[in-house]
Amino acid sequence: MELTERKKKVLRSIVDLYIRTAEPVGSKAIAELPDMKYSSATIRNEMADLTNLGYLEQPHTSAGRIPSASGYRLYVDELMADYRLSVDETKSINASLEEKMQRVDKMVEKVAKLVSQATDLPAISFSARQGDATVKRFELIEAGSGSFILVVMLSNDEVVNKLIKLPVNISETDLKLLSALLNATMTEISLEEFTAGLLDRVMRSAGAAASLVPVIVEFTTDTLRRSGSGNMAVAGQMRLLNHPEYRNIDKAQQVISGLDEEALSNLPAVMQGTNGTRVLVGPENVARELKDTSVVMTKFDIGDGMEAMIGVVGPTRMDYAKVTARLSYFAESLSKMFAKPEAPQLPASAIEEEA
After folding, report:
1. How, if at all, do strands 231-235 and 123-129 pair?
2. Tens digit of pLDDT at every position of the chain (355 positions)
3. DSSP H helical segments within the chain, as ranges?
4. What kind and span of H or E run contains 341?
5. Distances (CA, A) of 25 to 43, 78, 119, 129, 300
6. CA 179 from centroid of its chain's CA atoms
């Protein structure tokens, strides 16, 4: 059956009304809308067709209709109107963002709370380096008192170090040889390439310093793993209780218990290859705990090879247009906030004079 413009208009109106009221929508309520020019009988027929097509559901025999997951999907993809933030909303978000966070891990936690406050929904915030980091260089520096400092410099400009105790039989020359060996064999390779075979080859070539190789490899692989895992924060889980769908305590408890970092850890992977905003409705969610909810996520760049993601989890009845508009504004503002200022450009005349 063809989905005519009239059917689409009726479906859009039902979703809009259900978002506002959380009550099943009847044909009379649709007919009374200012821009609806069809009779109640015509609207009832369209609602019946939309139900048969799977875009609407009827909770009770005598009740109105509510959108299904397919109905929300069509609404998000084609029907919802752009939501324009009011002046007060932009002022409120800007005020929240005035204090620039200095550390990304603190930013992740704070942004999750701000997004949750702005949307009245549980929020997720995530940041990670773009691409997999590798080791750019190893440095082994004697520290006296029978120890040395292992310095590992990563391709994403992160630098980490560890103080390691030296066996008595290892000399400064042994350390220099080990440093050269590490830089020749264990730089610019992925985490997956740190195999048992590589460890064995390096140990056989390390001479007197062979006993240090397992310690160095363990620290290096842990560092690469942490660098690639990113930071995630979840905030505002209890805000779900503000929505009618979760007045049932058992249902609310089931969803809230699933809103933790472990259950949400697959969401960043869903955004791989995606720019901007993505909406997952009901069964489209990768986590079983979220199959009766919707998730809206936005990915953006925060400079220095870092990317971030913010999102919300809520009822399928959420106001998608408003939520996506607010997330997009947050993302744009944070991206600008963390962007490095461009170097001032010299006027052409000054360049010519220098030449």
Report:
1. antiparallel
2. 678 999 999 999 999 999 999 999 999 999 999 989 899 999 999 999 999 999 999 887 667 899 999 999 999 988 988 777 777 887 777 776 655 444 556 778 888 999 999 999 999 888 876 666 789 999 998 877 688 889 998 887 778 888 888 876 788 888 888 999 999 999 998 888 888 889 999 998 988 889 999 999 999 988 887 766 567 888 999 998 889 988 888 888 888 887 877 767 777 767 766 778 889 898 787 677 778 889 999 988 877 667 888 999 999 999 999 999 999 999 988 888 776 554 445 454 443 444 3
3. 5-21, 27-31, 40-52, 69-74, 87-97, 104-119, 172-185, 196-205, 213-229, 249-257, 261-264, 267-270, 320-338, 348-354
4. none
5. 11, 21, 24, 46, 37
6. 38
Q: Which residue in this structure is represented by tokens 């505002």?
A: 236
Three-class SS state of 293:
coil
Distances in Å between the alpha carbon of 299 and those of 173, 214, 267, 327? Answer: 49, 38, 11, 10
Nearest to 67 by CA among 27, 14, 29, 21: 14
341, 280, 350: which is closest to 309 by C-alpha?
280
Two structure tokens written together for 329: 């504004």
DSSP 243-278: SGGG-SHHHHHHHHHT-SHHHHTTHHHHTTT--EEE
CA distance 91 to 288: 37
Provide the residue type at 54 as one letter.
G
Q: Which residues pair with 150 in a beta bridge?
A: 140, 162
Q: What is the pTM of this model?
A: 0.65
What are the residues whose beta carbons fall under 8 Å from the beta carbon of 190, sequence distance 6 or more?
132, 134
Contacting residues for 201 by C-beta, under 8 A, at least 6 apart: 185
Residue 171: which residues within 8 A CB-CB, separation 6 or more?
208
Residue entry with tokens 């390439």: 193
